[in-house]
Amino acid sequence: MTGGLWFGGDYNPEQWDKEIWAEDDALMREARVNTATVGVFSWSAIEPAEGRYEFGWLDATLDRLHSRGVRVVLATPTASPPPWFTLAYPDAMPVTREGTRLWHGSRDTYCAAAPAYRSAALRIAEALARRYAGHPALAMWHIHNEYGTVCWCDHAASAFRDWLRRRYSRGENGLDALNEAWGTAFWSQRYSAWEQVLPPRATQWRPNPSQTLDYGRFWSDELLAAFRQQRDAIRRQTPQIPVTTNFMLSGHYQVLDSWAWSREVDVVAIDHYLGTAGADGAIDIAFGSDRARSWGGGRPWMLMEQAASLVSDSGLMLHREPGRMLRDSLGYVARGSDSVLFFQWRASRAGAESFHAAMVPHAGRDSRIFAEIAGLGQALERVGEIAGSTVRADVAVLWDADSWWALEDKGLPSADVRYLDAVRADHAALWRAGVVCDFIHPEGDLSGYRLIFASAAYLLSDEGAWSLRGYVEGGGHLVVSFLSGIVDSSHHVRLGGYPGALRDVLGIRVEEFHPLRSGTGIRLSTGERGTLWSEYLRSEGAQVLAAYADGPLAGCPAVTRNSLRDGTAWYVSTRLDEHAQDRIVGEALAAAGAGPVLPGLPPGVEVVRREGGGRSWLFALNHTGEPAVLPVTGLELLSGRPATGQLELPPGAVAVVREHHAGG
Ligand code: GAL
Fold first, then answer.
1. 327 in ligand 1 pocket by Cβ < 6 Å?
2. Which residues are catalytic?
3. Per-residue pLDDT for 210 more than 80?
4. In sequence order, what are the beta bridge partners of 643?
5. Is 470 helix (H, G, I), strand (E, B) or coil?
6. SS3 590
7. Is the CB of residue 353 below 6 angstroms from any atom belonging to ligand 1?
8. 495: Cβ–Cβ under 8 A, 6 or more apart, which residues?
9. In contact, 619 and 609? CB cutoff 8 Å
């Protein structure tokens, strides 16, 4: 990405007439919009009948945007095939787990494994690439939108079998390897021919967890193959233009293996819609941003979509209070985003999302939202020099789609334990401690981190387990939560006591799980509490930091610490209350020699540093209702005022300081 921070959003001129286009031009200029994502859902406008293209309106849009100085992120419209496609190729429509074939009338309705879909998608991507290869407005390709539709049809089944053949083709007979990996001796599931193998479609009771896990892996790969097909065709026409696709970060919905996908895009782009209008929104932003940055290996990334105002909060659409859009947006930028883009530029007047927030609301220019958008555009220009700089972290949390998928298995002793909750809980504790962290795959390069959290790392491959052991032995600090290291990469339980993959690293042995009913808790010897989970745990060399004080587990260790060669590993066997969690995290940070960017700040004042080209910038975000004072020296870019040793930050305010270093 070049040219400062990218600011703008999805632009859908095909929904409007010429007068509105003229107004768009004026308002984009006023708001200092420099980027428009065009064409995301335009398939039926570009190819109204099979093989007949109408590029006129798109030519005019790109020309107009270019003449106004707005760069174009050009999308391929393949997330929403037109009705003619459905009727011509009904077999390319997705089939649910229950066997229902879906119809057009919404969006994202296609099967990525269906040959007809794949070739139609490739054709329109190639047509767009040929047409706009030399267009001066074209700054980036945006393939598809939020890959995520899962299908269980016969095309999917056949592609699944091909994928399985490749995965299990090692021994003499791949099918034996599959039977072994899927544990098909249980419930008479043994396969005697490949044709018998199906996706995990709706069945009488619990599906086979190893099969379900493999289907998750396969489908991520299948969608990735669809992405690659378009990307490679586009790259042949425009090798110099970066290509991306937008990952949807949405609650417990996880279809893509983000590590594998991030290796295939030129820049990681995420769509992030806050899950709460409340104070935790700041942590939510940090959580999305830290993942995006980590997936891209620390490079600047893109916020491709956020909402301009209303935020879906437990099913209600709540608005963000005045001023928060600037703070929230700079929250993403602080953690490495080089863009602030929205869905969408102008609120639609028809369709399923007419009441979705937009940069230009239904009320038009004369509105609080547009005024804030214009203010944001100005602010982003003022801090534009930070583009390209990066964020460093020496603490990391493990992130692994395999663990997420495996932990969704219905056969676990508690349905209340969710992967995302566990990871978020550790990330939130670090946020409260003022520590910026990365995410890392268990088999990734752990060596740069002083402290690593394994949060519900339920599935650990042999390589992952070795990697964590080597990390601790080499002097690393590791905090492991319950339900980590339980199964191997085939979803088979590691025997001999939990957590099989990490028992000796942690110096403990767990004989039994004691999940806790929701709404109940368990007292610890420290006076603190645990919820959700507890375990019958014995120390095998680890020091006991807290024991259970209640019920059948009274006297059993609850939190332990073990030394292994040069490193230290903590184990936390319950969901600690916030106080206890912050205490343990504080202890681990101190032992690891890691800490916040600026120590001693009041809770809720967030500080992150970006660095690059020998300079550094401090982002300070005051999420509290009280003014804060920060020890900073430099130039505050939003106001243009110098900060000489002290920076006053009013409630709700944000500052970006180009730091002056002693002697610099
Ligand atoms: C995104 C999607 C957009 C829009 C938005 C609404 O997931 O990419 O097209 O639907 O959600 O929040």
1. no
2. 146, 305
3. yes
4. 634
5. helix
6. helix
7. yes
8. none
9. yes
Phi, psi of 106 (to 5 degrees): -130, -125
Yes or no: say if 535 and 510 are a contact pair by the CB < 8 Å rule.
yes
How far is 659 from 648, CA to CA, in rounded Å? 15
**Ligand 1 and 222: CB distance under 6 A:** no
Q: Is 304 in the pocket of ligand 1 (CB under 6 A)?
A: no
Report how far ligand 1's centroid is from the alpha carbon of 447 (Å): 37
Mutate to test the pocket of ligand 1, among 106, 304, 305, 318 (most ligand atoms within 8 A of CB): 305
256 alpha carbon to ligand 1 midpoint, in Å?
17
DSSP for 69-110? T-EEEEEP-TTS--HHHHHH-GGGS-B-TTSPBP-SSSSS--
Which residue CA neighbors atom 11 of ligand 1 most closely?
A: 343
- Token pair, residue 250, equals 């949405």
Q: What whole-number distance in Å separates Cα of residue 470 and Cα of residue 465?
A: 9
634 forms beta bridges with 643, 659
pLDDT digits (tens, 9 = 90+) for 526-542: 999 999 999 999 999 99
Ligand 1 and 273: CB distance under 6 A? yes
| Gap between the Cα atoms of 219 and 255, Å rounded | 7
Q: Is 303 in the pocket of ligand 1 (CB under 6 A)?
A: no
Two structure tokens written together for 147: 């890959």
Q: List, for residues 323-335, the tens digit of each pLDDT value.
A: 899 999 999 999 9
Angle at CA of residue 572, ends 567 and 574, nearest 5°: 175
Query: Are residues 352 and 19 in contact, defined by beta-carbon separation less than 8 angstroms?
Result: no
The residues, ordered by sequence, that sit 6+ positions from 637 with a Cβ below 8 Å of its Cβ are 382, 383, 385, 617, 656, 657, 658
pLDDT, residue 171, reads: 55
Cα distances from 227 to residues 142, 143, 173, in angstroms, run: 10, 7, 31
Tokens coding 522 = 């368990």
Q: HSE of 596 in the Cβ direction (CA atoms, 13 Å)?
A: 20
- For residue 662, the model assigns a pLDDT of 61
- Spatial CB neighbours of 539, under 8 Å, sequence gap ≥ 6: 507, 508, 557, 560
Distance 169 CA to ligand 1 centre (A): 40
CA-wise closest residue to 531 among 425, 433, 458 = 425
Ligand 1 center to residue 83 CA distance, Å? 20
pLDDT on residue 311: 77
CA 343 – ligand 1 centroid, Å? 6
